[in-house]
Amino acid sequence: MAAGLFIAPKLISCTSPKTSKNIGLQLYTLRNEIGSDVPGVIAKVAAAGYTQVETYGYSKKDLFWGMEPKAFKDLLSSNGLTSPSGHYDFNDYFTSGSEEQLLAYIEAANVLEQTYITAPYLEEHLRKTADDYKSIAAKLNKAAETCRKNGLKLAYHNHDFEFQDMGGTTGYQILLNETDPSLVQLEADLYWIVRAGLDPVELFEKYQGRFVMWHVKDMDKADKTLNTEVGNGSIDFKRIFDEIQAAGTEYIFVEQENFSIDPFQSITSSCNYVKENLL
Hints:
Radius of gyration: 18 Å
Largest sheet: 8 strands, parallel, barrel
Distance between the termini: 11 Å
Number of domains: 1
CATH architecture: Alpha-Beta Barrel
CATH superfamily: Divalent-metal-dependent TIM barrel enzymes
């Protein structure tokens, strides 16, 4: 997601994204296209109006869709793009506690000059109990320390399952309480927060400064399990952007997981709406 947020009287002022048109795209949006033509897809992302991308899926074996980090960084740069964050699979780390994979992520992220390594998803077997979430929080704190020692920051990206009741608390509440705010930041997926039945505005006001990134992903008006272009769905992004004007947010990333139109037309429509109506 692109820039730092605005100026609500309830919140402490910070950099306003209304002064910037930097908008990112989570490349998972184009997961069905990017593997067969990485240079072509990246060029189309830039042509759609984006200036930043959030990566996903890196491993030492598969690299960035077969590209070494330096080659991928050069590709981004040649298209006027930067990558402030990447989604990196933490499930093996959460299971074993071994940092070998994390160190490989750190190496790649530093080549891309990313700021954040982001944990994107918890496999179901890792999140069955409140104690499971406490274990995840402890491992996030440890991983964040390692990231900080290597010039990076760590963030956690939510879905909706973190907000399910667990005997008077939720997994997300545990993560908020048990992670060190000076180490572990949060990437708020607005779609999943709304789908869980919560108000992002209330969440951001209660936990100011924790949400350094947003995923701007809209909800289909007829079927809440589907996405649609930003501005075409049921999420009131104008209210969220207007009311949360200083939540400490540094980046916003458009994301869409399914389409009813051509994906490249879709990402262009979403980018235009964010630029013209939200920033």
